[in-house]
TrEMBL record:
PROSITE patterns: GNAT. GO terms for molecular function: acyltransferase activity, transferring groups other than amino-acyl groups. It comes from Actinoplanes teichomyceticus. It comes from the Bacteria. This is Putative GNAT family acetyltransferase.
Length: 252
C-alpha cells in the first residue's frame, strides 16, 4: 500500500501549474501561492537518491524554502541525507486508508445538509470555514479560490456542510476535499468544521460523503492523515484504518 500511496502523491504533484522534475524528485510548485503546504516536493518511489540529487533539489526550489512530504518506506535513506544538509523534521504522521468494504456512512446531523459548492462565491465560503478551523483568517483569497477551481477541473471532490436552521442566512459549517484520483487512489484532505459547529458529527459526515463520492467514481482506495486523537477517532468511525507512515521535513 505504501508504494501505491506514494505513486499517487507523485501523480498529484505533477498536475501543479509549475511542477518541476529534479532528478528523483517531483516539485509540485504553484507560483500563485506562497504556501509551503502547496509548494513541496516528493521522491519517486524506489529511486536511488544521492547527496548531489538533494543539492539539486534545494536549488530547484529557488527562493522558496525546500520542503518534502512522502511515505517513509518509499525512500528509507532520504531522511538522513536531508538532515545532513540542515533539514528538520516537521512531523511524522500515520496515514489511514478506506476502501468500499470498510466505509460506514453516518446520517447527516439534523439541521445540516451536505452540498457540492460550485460558484466562486460558494468555493470562497468553504475555504473561509476551512481557514477558520485551521486557525487562519476566516476569509478566502482569490488565489485560494483559483487553486480550488483548478483542482475541481482536474477531478477533485469538494463537499460542504451547510447550516439550514435559518434558510435566509444559511452558511457553511464545515467542508473538505479530495484530490483528483490517480491509479484508483485519492487523498482526502482539509476536513474542517467551524468552531461553533463542532461535536455534532459533521466531520465524520463530510469525510464519509467525500469518500462515498470517490468510490462511486471508481476510486479503490481513499487515504488521509489525522491531526490528533479526536480526528483519528472520527475517521476510524467512518471506516478508515492505519496503513503506513509519512514524513514532513523542511529547511527554513
Amino acid at each position: 500500500m505504501d508504494l501505491r500511496i506514494q505513486r499517487a502523491v507523485v501523480a498529484n504533484l505533477r498536475t501543479r501549474p509549475n511542477a518541476v522534475e529534479s532528478g528523483p524528485f517531483v516539485l509540485g510548485l504553484d507560483h500563485t501561492s506562497d504556501s509551503p503546504h502547496i509548494n513541496y516536493a516528493t521522491p519517486l518511489p524506489g529511486a536511488t537518491i544521492t547527496p548531489a540529487d538533494v543539492a539539486a533539489l534545494v536549488a530547484a526550489f529557488g527562493d522558496r524554502p525546500p520542503r518534502l512530504e512522502y511515505v517513509v518506506s518509499s525512500a528509507p535513506d532520504l531522511e538522513k541525507l536531508l538532515l545532513d544538509v540542515g533539514f528538520a523534521v516537521e512531523a511524522r504522521n500515520e496515514y489511514l486508508i478506506c476502501t468500499p468494504g470498510t466505509l460506514a456512512v453516518p446520517p447527516t446531523p439534523a439541521g445540516f445538509e451536505l452540498v457540492e459548492p460550485a460558484t466562486d462565491a460558494e468555493l470562497a465560503g468553504v475555504i473561509a470555514v476551512q481557514n477558520e478551523a485551521f486557525g487562519e483568517a476566516a476569509e478566502a483569497s482569490p488565489e485560494q479560490v483559483a487553486f480550488q477551481r483548478r483542482s475541481l477541473a482536474r477531478g477533485a471532490v469538494l463537499v460542504a456542510a451547510r447550516h439550514t436552521g435559518d434558510a435566509a442566512a444559511a452558511r457553511y459549517a464545515g467542508g473538505g476535499t479530495a484530490v483528483a484520483p490517480a491509479d484508483g487512489v485519492s487523498e482526502v484532505a482539509g476536513i474542517a468544521v467551524g468552531p461553533s459547529f463542532r461535536r455534532r458529527g459533521l466531520g465524520g459526515a463530510v469525510t464519509a460523503a467525500i469518500t462515498a463520492r470517490l468510490f462511486r467514481a471508481g476510486v479503490e482506495v481513499a487515504w488521509l492523515e489525522a491531526s490528533g486523537d479526536d480526528s483519528w477517532r472520527v475517521y476510524q468511525r467512518v471506516g478508515y484504518r492505519p496503513a503506513g507512515r509519512r514524513l514532513y521535513i523542511a529547511r527554513y
